Amino acid sequence: MARLVVMGGGVAGHTAATFAKKMLGSAHEVVVVTPNSNWNWIPSNIWVGVGGMSKEEVIFPLAPVYKKAGIDYRQAKAVAIHPEGKEGSDTPYIMIEYTDQTKPGQTEELTYDYLINATGPKLNFAATPGLGDANGLGEHTVSVCTADHAEHAAAELQKCIEKMKRGEKQTFLIGTGHGMCTCQGAAFEYIFNVEHTLKEAGVRDMAQIIFITNESFLGDFGMGGIHFNMGGFAMSSKVFAESLYAERGMDWILGAHVNKVEAGKVTYESLDGTMDEQTFDFAMLIPPFAGVGFKAFAKDGSDITATLFAPNGFMKVDANYNAGAYENWKPSDWPRTLQNPTYKNIFAAGIAFAPPHLISKPMSSPNGTPINPTPPRTGMPSAMMGKAVTMSIVDMIKGAPEPTHTACMAEMGAACVASAGKGLFNGTAAAMTVYPIVPDFETYPGTGRNLNGTTGELGLAAHWVKHILHFVFIWKAKLRPGWTLIPE
Amino acid sequence: MIQEIICFPDERINIASADIRDFDETLWELIDDLKDTAEAHHAQGIAAIQIAIPRSVVIAKTPDGEWVECINPRIIKTKNRSLSPESTLYLPDVIEDIPRYEKITLIYQDRYGTQRSLNAEGEFARLLQRKIDYTFGGTLANRLDKKNRQRVEKKLFAQGINGQFNATSKISKREYFKSVISKLLFFEALTWLAPLFHASQERLLSFWHYDIFATAASIVLIIGYLIYSKFEADRSVSCTGCQVVSFTAVAVKYFLAMALFCTLSYLVVRPH
């Protein structure tokens, strides 16, 4: 009997664990280690953040789902990996520390035959002074990265609405809180939802809404922009995004590295090297992501963290980390099997793997500060990776010498649905798909994208899509009947 | 060398320009061609896509008459939006009021790849904005509202130039399914007017037959749309989830419309 341990119960981890159990059955063991007691459908946090949905609608407890599926669930956080075992034993193991109510702080050695690292990101609020610290979110801003954060954001937003109803003008600053953030799409979506909410509350004219981002142009999304067909018209994501902002009277600040947050004020460095300030009454700034910060130890107890992890804390996989300068980047730099090159029974999926380099054009200010979006690898790509890794491991358990399945971001499309409003008829949304995520300049000269696989849909239908997705994916994650038929 | 400038309705203008990655002779030759072409046309600036090269290169004349070469340019700061008349070589003889920023800050790379920034205002700033729009696949027409865009199209048509802004031949074939369903339903809706004109029972009966046909054909087309869309989504490796939900939502929308139309036809048109 083999034991597969999955660290993390997010989109990638949950997908990996549930498929593994389904494919392996009771002959083998699947263990999930995650510090969270709930599963969260993160894309819907946007709606929680404006008060359109309650926190309970976007989360559900993991324990009953895993119990039903026959998955061994440990509410604990993994702290260290011992891929070579310890003195007297060759069996690799991870060190876990329980976070549940019954045995908090208790540690345990958990052995594994195969390990999937799907721990997602550490929300690195500490990277920007004032944005937060090692304990998380700071006092001056809000976030929508977790369901709790989103609930807090909605309460703060409500306070601002009350103030505006009393005649006080308010400034809303929404965007990225650091020069190396990813997930601009979430901020993009949130700003439209805030604008929509203020309009519904009848206070739009009292508000100035500003987008602040590390992108060098609106609509970069960490993917170097998207160019798509929309209703038969060619449209660039820059032209598209600028017109959406302009129509709604929202301003934007580009190429900004927020380097300090104080009460009611951010300081930022621009791509041209200048320093500026922006005041705010309400700020939702997304933190940069880092790896969760595991340690790894060899058999003799020496620290081998650098062998397993890149300096940013993400796990090294079968990517080309020596691709060099921008002009040398190739799609083949991107990992395919997501297997660790040193320890062949360790895999990473979702945000947890270390990307070889950026997708957007790298940029920095004349002072040397890098200001560019880092590659997005959330949502659908995460789930695809989780599934591919699982299928490889299942085959390896059954005797395959090498990973049998791949999930390469240079061969994968991504879809994003940005929606504003929550009603049946008063919402609008832009659904975009882009193929491939990592531009392939060899196959598709020029922009590196296949225009036929890149489409956009704007309007009510796209808005419904986002709603349907919410229910469909929660249905799938709860392993309700037919869950395997629902695509990633 | 002087190159040919592409003009409306050439659709290549909508291609998004790729960022330059290699700063070598190929780039320098392109810059020389751009300068020659701009000089020959007495233009103050030109983007590479205007000579059908989809690369992010813009050259523009500063107020002092010097050429500035902007590779991979991005506008990162803007100030004061205002309307002012503009024209461009892509749209001969068209002068339109376009909203632009009066002051901008630009970052770009020079011909050796060194990052630089520049502040521009007035006419020079407007020129740069217009050219940078081209590198992102946008023309002056994208800055106009729909009404004005159609007016310009009509004006050009009157000059014998027939075309559409942003039209693309790369339209997904599943759009055709939607288009045919919409037309069927449109004609079905027209039959509802028949009772207003006291149409005879026979005429109503033939209309009702059309309505039955339109409903049946719509059902077939919606199923066809679903099958074709799935086929199309499967062609793009692993691009599935949202696409499936997206076209399912579109299909549901058409199905609801079809059901509503059929009900109304049954009540209004069917001879009793």
Quick summary of this structure?
The complex is a heterodimer of chains A (488) and B (272). With 488 residues, chain A is α/β, with parallel strands linked by helices.
Written account of the structure:
The complex is a heterodimer of chains A (488) and B (272). With 488 residues, chain A is an alpha/beta fold. Chain A has a domain at 3-123 and 289-397: FAD/NAD(P)-binding domain (3-Layer(bba) Sandwich), CATH 3.50.50.100. Chain A is built from 10 helices and 26 strands. In chain A, the strands form 7 sheets. In chain A, strands 1, 2, 5, 6, 7, 8, 22 and 23 form an 8-stranded mixed beta sheet that branches. In chain A, β12, α6 and β13 (207-212) form a beta-alpha-beta unit. The longest helix of chain A is centred in the N-terminal third of the chain and has 19 residues, at 147-165. By secondary structure, chain B is α+β, with helices and mostly antiparallel strands. Chain B folds into 2 domains: 11-158, Alpha-Beta Complex (Peptide Deformylase), CATH 3.90.45.10; 174-268. Helix content of chain B is 46%, strand content 21%. Chain B has helices spanning 25-40, 122-135, 146-158, 174-191, 201-235, 241-268; strands at residues 45-47, 57-61, 67-88, 91-109, 115-121. In chain B, α4 (174-191) runs antiparallel to α5 and α5 packs antiparallel against α6. The longest helix of chain B has 35 residues, at 201-235. The model of chain B is unreliable at 167-171 (pLDDT under 50). At the A-B interface, β15, α7, α9, β24 and α10 of A face β3, β4 and α6 of B.
Helical content of chain A (DSSP H or I, runs of 4+): 10-25%
Strand content of chain B: 15-25%
Assembly category: heterodimer
Please state roughly what percent of the residues of chain A sit in beta strands, choosing from under 5%, 5-15%, 15-25%, 25-35%, 35-45% or over 45%.
25-35%
